[in-house]
Queue: 4 jobs
Job 1
Amino acid sequence: MRSFWISKVISITNKTVFFAWSMQLIPVFKWKGINGGLPKNDKYMQKQFLKDRDIVLFSFQSWDSEIGFNLKDMAYELAKKNRVLFVNRADDRASLMPDKKDGLFANKKTRENLEQVERNFWLYNSGLVLESINWIAWSWLYDQFNKANNRRISKKINKAIRELGFQNVILINDNDFYRGLYLKKMVRQCSTYIFYIRDFLTIQPYFKKHGVRLEQQMIHNSDLVVANSGYLAKYAAKWNRYSYDIGQGCDLEAYQAIEYPMPADLAEIPHPVIGYCGAITAMRLDESIVSHLAESFPECSIVLVGPEDDFFRKSSLKDLKNVFFLGGKTPREVPSYISHFDICINPQLTNELTIGNYPRKIDEYLAMGKPTVATATDGMLIFKDNVFLCNSKKEYADQIRKILMDPNLSGDEIKRERINFALSHTWENSIGLLGGAYFDSIKKN
């Protein structure tokens, strides 16, 4: 009798596990053993460069986005030793609406065009207008339309690949787990599919309906996953053993000039200037920190440079006399603003989106030797010896007060330390770790 009930329990358990697997409630792992889930980084692998390969890059961000992004910089670095095709983000019907203003997504390029950017490097605008499907609530229906969008994209990519004669392609998908979900099988010459994660997108409202399940599928189905922080690599390792931290690179040449012109809209703002450069969004920035600093330092000007979302366009900060919103600037203009800041800040909220994020702006601040005050997230720990990290708005005020009162914290010696640290974060180093991840996964798979 006892053996009868034991066999029943086992049978029920097996059926439950199979049902959960079939409904994708339990991810199917590629590896055995708990140790397989640990992310790899440069402690476990050596830098090794991809050479003479055909590489296709695919991003959720538009090539001509007003906000700089990693994959664009990585494309130039990869093209030094390989042939590279960057597939620009296609428009969808919603992005073409007259009142749609989105610096991340909309590129308004509906004419097909294959343009050579430089030797071994091409930019492809597919001319597609995809269906806007994010409003669909039913997963099964959404997946059918999403697969159709993926199929249309893949046909265009296959066409560009044939025209360029690409073979044995490495396809790198930058965070687009919607439009890139099925490309591994649909792009005919794809031999290796790499998913690049650099942000927690799934907590944003746009990705709430389908993002969590599709991101997990994307990570699991990729041949390997690379991330720009250890935190994100560890996150990806839940679903893919071959998850690697390749660090963050920065192109800091533009931040190394001896002098920079004073921007016209900054010229009349009184010093000391406490400045921020970057996207000004409610998902990332803590309005209360900025407000507290404005009230704590009425003698200082708080200057925010970057595109604003609806929340900050209506923010009560606009009513404060010593807070200045200067709007979005091109990447070429940004160094001139930072060079004329006295103190730089990154007043991030602490949430899933920011906690493991590597903020490029910190390297930009430090490359100019600026004293920098920032929120203490996991992603910021790498900067702990060169940045004043804070856990509250009071700590922000205390650290800024310390900088204002101690001239040594803005002296030449400490400036040089900050600059040298920032300059150690190169794209060459990051791309070397990407290659190391690729060869490590090939060896172990």
Note: The CA atoms of residues 47 and 432 lie 4 Å apart.
Job 2
Amino acid sequence: MRCPTLKELPPPPEGKTGWPWTEESSQLPDVTPKGKPWPKITVVTPNYNYAQFIEETMRSVLLQGYPNLEYIILDGGSTDASIEIIKKYEPWLAHWRTEPDEGQTDAINKGFVMAKGTILAWINSDDIYYPDAFKKASVVLEDNPELALVHGDIMLIDENSALICRWKSHKISLQDMLMGSFIQQTSSFFRKAAIESIGYLDKRLQYVMDYDLWLKIITRYPNTYIPEVLGCARQHEAAKTGLSQYKYWEELIELLTDFSDQSISKAYLDKALGFMHMMAGFTYLRVNETSKVVEHFRAAIAKRFFTKKTARVVTSWTMGFLSSSRDLGNFLTEIEQLEMRLKSLVCLPSHFWKALYAARELKRADEGFKQKNRKAVCRHIFGAFRLTPSLVLKKYFWRLVIFGLLGPKVLVNSARLKKSFFIFKLFPRC
């Protein structure tokens, strides 16, 4: 099916404007730039009681302007207005049904089994695609037949579709994935032949089934990264990963405990498990599950995760853990509270505390950057370096260093800076 135009779809609800309500992707020609038919893309959307979001999701799929789309929606027996909304768009759906299922993973698998496309993707009914996402993914896969998976960047959006920030990715290796670099499902497209050869999603998993799939694909096939925004992931109170992040980390730890690959040493896998235990500990700290906090931090210590080499990982993820504290004062207060709570619960090695204090210095340097105070940036960025020397591998660290030493004019053209400044050639993925 060729994607419909904006005029062909039902009008948007009152007050809804912009993508994908009053804007659409350009209609692509019937053939690719190489004169070949566009490969069929099958998109599956699982849904259960997300009537407040599903119409936006559906329109972001249907308004891609793509000439060869198969769209499947599998509803788990919703009791809200979801069915009424789905029926509005029934003429453009290859298949849809509503029935009880065994969860999200089961629904997605049913869609993949039905799929006739050579390229597959799934998008949850609270997320949306970016304009021209299908075109960009399809062109890369068609030009590179050896690839089984492409992924890009995403935008994080809130309940009202307002932009929160851009989540940038990079070309991810197996080692990267094990140490916390995640392929975003909303921006991922993969070949049906690959998933048929390795098996479909593991129905036992409800939180990390996508992570499990990416692990299986990248251990067997080449993948690549498109430095473009392909989708938007919504953060809201009802989101599964928002309410149950601790279950996510528990499931991930269980998955990696049984994982093995010839290219990964036991020492590296232990380090990866240590990282996962640390993140689980941080997450349980949010919900005051003190016994779980102690359990997971002790497990991270047992895996010898807290070392000089991993300190930068601790610093980065501490800042991510406290990212809701945009204000410097609140951030510093949360760091102090985090320190007090952890010291009262578990005895952690000095490398952990140095990494935590380095996060505090980085935040102060960031505040100096915002205020264009070069002296403050220099003072705090080198304070962070003294605590955690491995921060030299982080691109953000060098951005602050360059600003502090050379001033804001040097950072005007960041693309030129990346190409010319030697440190980015030494550490292209930092």
Note: The two ends are 42 Å apart (CA to CA).
Job 3
Amino acid sequence: MLKSSQSGFTLVEILIAMAVMAIGSLGIAEMLNNHNKAARNLDMGVARSGFKSAITGMIQNPANCLKIVGAENFNNFNAPNSSIRDPYKDISVLRGLTAGSTLVTAGQPLPGNSKLIAGQIRVEETVAPGPPVNGITKRQVRLIIPITKAGMANGERNIAGDSFLSDITIPMTLGIQANGTLDGCSPSATGCESENSVVTGDGRCKQVACPTGKIQAGVYSTAVTDADGLHQVGDVVCARISSHPAGLVDGNPKSCDRGYHLDNTGQCVNTTICPGQVQKSVASDGASYCCVHLSANSPGSSNDAQFNCPAGTNVEDAFGGAANSNAMRYVRVVGTTVEASCESSSGCHAEANCCRQYPAPFPTVISPRQCDTANHFAWDTGQQACVHQDPAVCPPGGFTASSGMCNKSVAHAAQCNCTGCSFSADPNPSNQGGECNVSAHY
């Protein structure tokens, strides 16, 4: 008789297996929890970077910079303390770009992101300010925005703590009026409204470099105001990369775009500079390649036609012809001489283009001044000056202008008259050439 046998896990083995499974489950749960917290931390880091990029981009525009921090009064900075090493000013809110809007408030979540909270916003002075210039004190500061992470819902700590390793820091320059209100604001650490300027010994901002996309074309020798604002003596002159030096306007270098040149009014134009010739092409600096078409016929019974292009020109497109189409021998160019030779004297013809490069003018232009029109002065573009317009004010009848006087030679003083004019006779006609002089018009 066979005996039946039973086999299986003992109770101890089952308990051990259950313990192992429980431990494994706990490990997996912890891994999932850490993964979720890491993903949350990553999202907050990306959001913080995005906020920093956004506010930095806004402040790049001085007008936006003024809107964002302009609501504060910057008359009094707090003294440094154990945690803040430089003079500072707390800011409660950064304004938005539209009236009444808020960009971020200290102690409150960032707009549209409840996981990030702004700490105490402040500006810290980085360089001791100099004396006011025209009532404005320039203060070089850094805008500091601490960002913290919102707490976990279950009370657990965020990965790497609730604070980021560094605050959002943006260098700025504030122009502060005597009453503490802002006159100007820019994202620059140079003490000027542009990163391309530096503060000089007299407290003014001197432009020493050009912004991206422009090149230095010289230095201002006279102050001038244009669409970019006031340029003072010693500031660099900036021009587009595609431009070239074209002349001087009021003593300052002037550049024009490719293919343009400066005219005598100080404007960049692309008009031809060819002297009565055809413009074939224009160089990048505004120089023109100009051509004149010349031709010659064989004289009398001669079989050849010949002419010379002006010295210094290039001979182009030379060709010839004969009255008898089969009688053409050759057309050749020797230096600047064009020759055509034919088999018979029935008629030979030669023609070609004589071309040369004419450099673009490099004029020195003085901008039109406000002339004393009441005393008959007007701006003369050719002379670049206010010129007295004598002919315009002298009466008809033989009077000529000279040194601000209208003169007319007469035989007798009694002939000094003019309808509607006030003339006085020369008291000694014999010594003064018998002239009648008038100065009432001047």
Note: The longest strand covers residues 348-358.
Job 4
Amino acid sequence: MARTKSRTGDVSHVSLKFSAINGVLLAAGLAAIVGGYIMLADGSTVGAPLLLLLGYAVLIPLAIIL
């Protein structure tokens, strides 16, 4: 758990709160990654990298930071 120190010197705990949108984005990211690897196994040279990029670089980070 992260701790932050305020100007007065107290240490407060910051908790991460995940909502339904985080779960949806995470599921979409995992689906894009799985779909990308499936397309990669089939030999797709355009769709697979796009899906993998979408999953790893866009959807998973959005699921974490939103």
Note: The CA atoms of residues 4 and 12 lie 6 Å apart.
